[in-house]
Structure formats: structure tokens, C-alpha cells
Design goal:
The structure is a single chain. This protein has 391 residues and is mainly beta. The chain has a single domain, classed as 7 Propeller (Methylamine Dehydrogenase, Chain H). It is built from seven helices and 27 strands.
Length: 391
């Protein structure tokens, strides 16, 4: 990526880091007791707690990945700069600070993504390279990046994921960095969607954003371009934050097999592209709805999307006052309560709100709270993570 764009992205990541912390705060509380509901002839599944994990830690960590067999979970503690692995019983399997100067260091103060990979490896991606670790966090190999992720997220980017023998990236190749950002059709002129060999990182196949998507129909620079992806039954499912459709691809060919509209409510507004260096670009993006995540639970699809901030209130937020109490109040008003959708196949059986802020990793739904609890109400000696399912 050219130096100007790198500085632009890093400045925005650091400048708006407090927003991520703020969103973490408002995306917390517990669900009320839910009952099984039948709306007409459509059965709406119940959101229930299926299990919990208790971690012996004063600070609340961030879950960054889960093994496909759910045997263990990978966490990062942003306060202590530690990675650690936890078994499903809550046992701490290994802890390591990899941000220092030791031989196992990632040689950076932050990372972009961390994922379990085949052969009991953990891959940690930074701006400079992919660091391969064993389960003891001993560095096995470092590979210099031949690509740059298209993402604004540090510490858990959705543009980097693993599945069996494949590495998925939403990225630009090094050879194209100097020219791709000059294109007025940035969002639909490049094969960002990439499947790589997980051993060599060589490209197997790649494709551009789907022609039916908002970004292809109205090309330009989008603050949130990188899609949410999930792997299921040998297929890649994909939702772009600002384009409310589901796309399904074959793996590893990336042949588009299926697609359908998600049909969010009126609080979801379509985005418009902005200028890459526009200082209000991030603020303008808040005027559009955003899909935050989705996953599958017992053959149901559940999605999360965030409300758009109406234009009259968005105009009150400026680059100068974005950290003010008034701006935070506006963001909290529209973002504190996410919207959820439940699908059976392509059929939407329910859309609404639960009084819980769920997170999703692979096919795991979780939160640091249960019904009636505020996870930040008081300091805890232990951290309890509740695992949910639709049933």
C-alpha cells in the first residue's frame, strides 16, 4: 500500500480507537428470558445459554478465535498484551506476551488478526508478515507479506481467516499497491476476495466483489468494504457491511453458487462512497446501516446489524467534536441496541432486538453476560463467557 494510504489508515485506526472501546462498552448487557414464539406458521427459535467458560483473570479479554471442534479458544488481553489459550473447561493452556523484543515476538505493538490453522498452528498477521506459532507460542516461521489486507480493524480483522487447507484474505497484492488506490472504481475493479494455500500462501483463486452488490453498482471508496465471512460445509458465506445480501461461494473455486436479500428494517440505510482522504469519511459512514456479524446455530442463520444515524443528528458530529459527550450520546442512542435477524434457509422468520449484545466467532455465539446482568457493573475476579445457541 502506498505510504499516504498507510498513514491515512493508521491515523484513522488510532484516532477512532476510542470508538471501538466505546462500542465494546455499549454492546454489553444480558438478554431477558425469551420464550418460544410462533408467528403465524413460522417458528421462532429461542436464544438460550448452552454453556459457559470461567476464566481466572481480572481484566476482560477479547476472544480472537476458536478451534473448529470447539476444544479451545484463543484470547488476547489488550491491557496486558498477552495471548492465551483456554480449554472449553476454562483451563489456561498457555499464556505469552508476543509484543516484546524476544525471539518469539511479532515485532510490533499490535496485530491485525490471529487464527488457528491446521497442524496445531496459530497464525498471527501484522502489517509486515505472517508469524507461525505452535500451540506453546514458540515461533516456527515468519513469512513476509505479499499482500495488504483491506481493513480498518486492528486485533481481529475479518479480512483474514483459515479453513482446512485454505487461507482467506480480502486484500491487495503487493505488486498492485501503487496503482489500485488511484482507481475511481476502487470497490469493484480488483479481485480482493482471495483463497490462498495455507502452507505456501500462494493464490489459488480470487474474485472481485459481486456485481449485484452496492459497491459494484455504485463504485468508489467505502469506509467499511471488507465483508464478514463464514465457512460452512465446504462453502464460503459472505455479507458486506453496507450491502444487505448473502453470497455463497464454492471452495476453493469461488464460483458464486447462491445469493439472497437479507431485507433489513428501515433503520438500515444504504451507504454512499466517499473520497479516500475525506476527514469526514468515517463520520459519513455512520449514516448508513452496518452488518456487524452473522453465524449459523442449529441450522438457523442469525445476523446482527447496526442502525444508521439519521442525517440531522449525524450533522452534529464533526472531526473536532467526535470524542465529546454529545457525540458519544448520539452514537449510543442508535448503536446501543443492535438488530437481529433469524433465517431458516433463505426465509426470514424473525427480526427484532434482544437486550443482549452478542458476539460471534466461526459458529460460536457468546457474550460476557446473561439475563439481567451488566458485565461492567462491578470489577470481577473471574471472567465468565456465556455461549448461546438458537433452539
Amino acid at each position: 500500500m502506498n505510504k499516504r494510504l498507510v498513514i491515512f489508515f493508521l491515523n484513522h485506526v488510532l484516532r477512532y480507537f476510542f470508538i471501538l472501546a466505546f462500542l465494546t462498552m455499549i454492546y454489553s448487557c444480558g438478554p431477558s428470558d425469551s420464550e418460544k414464539i410462533v408467528e403465524g406458521e413460522k417458528y421462532v427459535p429461542e436464544l438460550v445459554i448452552r454453556d459457559s467458560i470461567v476464566i481466572d483473570r481480572l481484566t476482560k479479554p477479547t476472544m480472537v478465535d476458536v478451534k473448529p471442534d470447539h476444544s479451545e479458544f484463543l484470547f488476547y488481553d489488550f491491557k496486558t498484551s498477552e495471548f492465551f489459550r483456554i480449554s472449553k473447561s476454562g483451563e489456561n493452556l498457555k499464556t505469552a506476551d508476543l509484543t516484546g523484543d524476544g525471539k518469539n515476538s511479532i515485532q510490533a505493538g499490535y496485530f491485525v488478526g490471529a487464527k488457528y490453522a491446521k497442524d496445531d498452528k496459530i497464525l498471527i498477521l501484522t502489517l509486515s508478515g505472517i508469524y507461525e506459532y505452535d500451540l506453546g507460542f514458540t515461533l516456527i516461521n515468519k513469512v513476509t507479506n505479499s499482500f495488504e489486507l483491506i481493513t480498518r480493524i486492528v486485533g481481529g480483522s475479518k479480512s483474514f481467516d483459515t479453513f482446512k487447507d485454505y487461507l482467506y484474505t480480502f486484500s491487495v497484492e503487493e505488486k498492485d499497491r501503487s496503482t489500485i488506490y488511484q482507481s475511481e472504481k476502487f470497490s469493484n475493479s480488483y479481485p480482493f476476495i482471495t483463497i490462498r494455500d495455507l502452507t505456501t500462501y500462494a493464490i489459488i483463486t480470487s474474485d472481485s466483489v459481486p456485481g449485484e452488490s452496492l459497491m459494484a453498482k455504485n463504485p468508489g471508496f467505502y469506509t467499511l468494504l471488507d465483508p464478514i465471512v463464514k465457512f460452512r460445509k465446504g462453502e464460503l458465506y459472505m455479507v458486506f457491511p453496507n450491502s444487505p445480501e448473502m453470497y455463497v461461494y464454492d471452495l476453493p473455486s469461488l464460483n458464486l453458487k447462491d445469493q439472497w436479500e437479507l431485507e433489513p428494517g428501515d433503520t438500515y440505510k444504504l451507504a454512499e462512497p466517499t473520497e479516500p482522504m475525506d476527514p469526514r469519511g468515517f463520520i459519513l459512514s455512520m449514516g448508513s446501516g452496518v452488518y456487524k456479524d452473522f453465524t449459523f446455530s442449529n441450522d438457523y442463520l442469525v445476523t446482527i446489524y447496526q442502525n444508521a444515524i439519521p442525517t440531522d443528528e449525524l450533522e452534529l458530529i464533526t472531526p473536532e467534536n467526535i470524542s465529546s459527550d454529545k457525540s458519544k450520546e448520539i452514537m449510543k442512542k442508535y448503536w446501543a441496541q443492535p438488530n437481529y435477524q433469524i433465517f431458516k434457509g433463505k426465509d426470514k422468520v424473525w427480526e427484532g432486538q434482544w437486550d443482549i449484545k452478542l458476539s460471534m466467532l466461526r459458529d460460536v455465539i457468546f457474550a460476557f453476560s446473561k439475563p439481567g446482568e451488566d458485565p461492567d457493573a462491578f470489577e470481577k475476579d473471574m471472567q465468565t463467557i456465556y455461549l448461546y445457541e438458537l433452539k
